[in-house]
Design goal:
The structure is a homodimer.
Chain A (H helix, E strand, L loop, with lengths): L7 H11 L6 H13 L2 H17 L1 E2 L6 E2 L13 E8 L2 H10 L4 E5 L17 H9 L5 E4 L5 H14 L5 E4 L15 H9 L11
Parallel strand pairs in A: 3-4, 3-5, 5-6
Antiparallel strand pairs in A: 1-2
Helix pairs in contact in A: 1-2
């Protein structure tokens, strides 16, 4: 099919879009045709944004999350509690926790999760940096906020072992029935955990 | 949500991808994170390809299809039959017809289809140019190869009216049961047309 493109520029653009995950050649073609109909200033900005993204984006030297500056906005916010570190897989998870407005500590972004299938071991992640940070002192609690998958549990366990000798409280997110979930359709492991870890009932408070 | 991005570059890139049709913010984020993991040379090429696409791509002065040169490869191919013009909606359709390897004439790309709902009238398309081309002479047949939609039929009819006084044969694609279609599930209009336009049976020949 590639030899029949009427334009090499068109073909190259379709190939680039088709190289993205979850985007096939038909969709890539549709996106490129859409760009051709868009204002040229907008399309130029699109192209330049992508180029700049990869060239200029950096990683925060403290939390290892994506940042525009050597130390990210969260890590440089002195009103936040630097004694509590929330360990997350990636920057999406930082944003997810931030959106809850329930956490005022700092983050530590692992940059992935231990996954032997994908060839990702502990040394590919920032676990060593986390240990250094805790050893340096001043941290009272490390919250493990990873996905409740086998890889997440493996990573939790590995980090727990690395930090267990140190003077720090290691916590993990509460597991239980999600808000809005119907009990009948909740899986038995989650439901079982939610019974074992039941709490004193209190009326919901706004705030 | 936008105020909580840890990086403006990241946010801008997500916004750009999310501006594409059929790509929501979650998908845009996933695509951007994918680009951040890719080799920086590749990502730079991606960005530059998009910028160049919109700036450098041009339209063939004869068929009005997308081209890298003022006259496209098909229109400048002297081995093709310049007396037959296949009228299509866009360059995807040129590629679709080319892929059949059954057509050795030239194309005329309308750049769309008459669609009052989308505010596209005859003057937004290259129908005038088609008429000029036919009036200039040397064209024996115009094949209307538009989609079998209401908009396609409207456009077919409009072009037919515009060209009907001129010395040219106007044809349209054969309508019928698609190859591989089960008769039971073929819509009755198509099936009806395929009976009205039935052909003498012949054994399929390899070619």
């Amino acid at each position: 099919m590639s030899s029949r493109f009427p334009s090499r520029l068109l073909e190259e653009a379709v190939n680039e879009f088709a190289s993205l995950p979850g985007i096939g050649r038909k969709t890539a073609f549709r996106l490129v045709m859409h760009l051709l109909r868009r204002d040229s200033v907008e399309v130029k900005r699109f192209g330049e944004t992508i180029t700049r993204l990869r060239e200029d984006v950096c990683y925060c030297s403290r939390c290892h999350g994506i940042s525009d500056t050597p130390v990210c906005d969260i890590c440089s916010d002195t009103t936040r509690d630097s004694s509590i570190i929330c360990v997350v897989e990636n920057v999406q998870d930082v944003m997810a926790v931030e959106n809850t407005r329930q956490f005022r500590g700092l983050y530590h972004v692992l940059g992935g999760i231990i996954s032997p299938v994908d060839g990702i071991g502990p040394s590919d992640l920032t676990i060593g940096k986390l240990e250094e940070k805790v050893r340096a002192g001043g941290i009272s609690e490390v919250i493990l906020a990873l996905s409740t998958t086998m890889e997440g549990d493996t990573t939790n366990f590995y980090i727990y072992k690395r930090l267990s000798g140190l003077d720090v409280r290691i916590t993990t997110l509460a597991r239980g029935v999600a808000i809005g979930d119907v009990l009948e359709y909740t899986d038995e492991v989650t439901l079982g955990q939610s019974i074992v870890n039941r709490r004193i009932f209190s009326l919901p408070s706004q705030g």
